[in-house]
Amino acid sequence: MGFLEKIFGKTKESNKMSNVKLAVIYYSMGGTNYQLSKWAEEGAKEVGAEVKVLKIPELAPQSVIDENEGWKAHVEATKDVPEVTLEDLEWADAIIFSVPTRFGNMPAQMKQFLDTTGGLWFHGKLVNKVVSAMTSAQNSHGGQEATILSLYTTMHHWGAIVASPGYTDPVQFTSGGNPYGVSVTVGQDGKMIEDVEAAVKHQAKRTVTVAGWVKKANQ
Question: What Gene Ontology cellular component terms go with this record (predicted)?
Answer without folding.
Answer: membrane
